[in-house]
Design goal:
Elements lengths: L10 E3 L3 H5 L6 E8 L4 E2 L5 E3 L2 E7 L4 E8 L5 H12 L22 E4 L8 H10 L2 E5 L6 H13 L19 H4 L4 H14 L5 E2 L2 E5 H7 L10
C-alpha cells in the first residue's frame, strides 16, 4: 500500500475539466448527499427521523450507479459505502419486483466530491489509492449541477409519493407527515432501488433522445467495467 502521508491532496475541478474528463463510461463519478424531507419509523412504528441519502452518479450517462441511506449526517465512511455499492455488481431478489438489471458497476477514473473536510479523509484517500482512481473537489457549488438536478427529480418523481413525505405540496407543505410515516429504513431502501432500476436509469437521456441513461452507459464503454475481485 502506498504511503498516504506522501500523497497530494485532491485537486480542484477546473471550469471546463469535467467535459474533458467525461468521455467514456466510468470516467467520472460524482458524489453528493442530502437530508430527505421524509419521516421514517422503526419496526414498531415509532418515528426515528429523517434519513440522509448519498448518491453516486456516473457522469457520462447520468445513471445513478450506487447509493447509501442512513440516519446520521454522512461523512467519508458513508461516502465509501455508497461508492462500494456503485462499484460492485448488484443483485436483488424477486421481492424487489425489478423490471431491469442494475448493470452499473466498475471503478471510476475520477471521483468528484464536495470540499467539506468530512469527505477529504485518509479513509477515502486510501480507497482511491487501493483502487487507483483520483479524487477531485468541486471548485464551486455550480459544478454540482448534475447531482442537484437528480435530487430535484428524485423529490418530484419519487419522494413526493412516499407516505411520510413532508413537502408533497409546494404551496402548502403537508402537516401530516408524522401521521402517515410508515416505512422503515430497510423498506425505504427497497423503494429507492425500485425507483432507480425501474424508472430513473431507464428514462430517456436528456441530451441523447435515442437512448435511455442505462443504454448510454452501455454504449459508451470501451472496456468491460473494472470490478475488484
Amino acid at each position: 500500500m502506498s504511503d498516504l502521508s506522501s500523497q497530494p491532496t485532491p485537486d480542484k475541478l477546473g471550469d471546463k475539466t469535467l467535459n474533458v474528463l467525461c468521455v467514456h463510461t466510468n470516467d467520472v463519478f460524482q458524489a453528493a448527499h442530502t437530508c430527505l424531507d421524509l419521516l421514517l419509523v422503526d419496526k414498531d412504528g415509532n418515528e426515528i427521523g429523517h434519513p440522509f441519502l448519498v448518491l453516486i452518479i456516473e457522469c457520462t450517462s447520468s445513471c445513478i450507479a450506487g447509493f447509501h441511506l442512513g440516519l446520521r449526517h454522512p461523512k467519508s465512511h458513508e461516502f465509501a459505502l455508497a461508492l462500494r455499492h456503485a462499484i460492485l455488481p448488484k443483485q436483488y431478489g424477486p421481492d424487489y419486483n425489478l423490471k431491469h438489471n442494475w448493470n452499473c458497476r466498475g471503478i471510476p477514473k475520477y471521483l468528484i466530491i464536495d470540499q467539506a473536510k468530512d469527505f477529504d479523509s485518509l479513509h477515502l484517500r486510501r480507497i482511491a489509492t487501493e483502487l487507483d482512481f483520483q479524487i477531485l473537489h468541486r471548485a464551486y457549488p455550480s459544478q454540482g449541477g448534475l447531482v442537484e438536478s437528480i435530487f430535484d427529480k428524485f423529490n418530484k418523481e419519487f419522494l413526493s409519493h412516499i407516505p411520510g413525505y413532508e413537502c408533497s405540496n409546494v404551496q402548502k407543505p403537508s402537516k401530516d407527515a408524522q401521521k402517515y410515516a410508515c416505512f422503515t429504513v430497510e423498506e425505504f431502501k427497497k423503494e429507492i432501488v425500485k425507483y432507480i432500476v425501474n424508472h430513473y436509469n431507464w428514462q430517456i437521456h436528456p441530451r441523447r433522445k435515442d437512448q435511455t441513461r442505462l443504454q448510454r452507459w452501455e454504449a459508451n464503454q470501451i472496456l468491460p467495467p473494472n470490478v475488484p475481485e
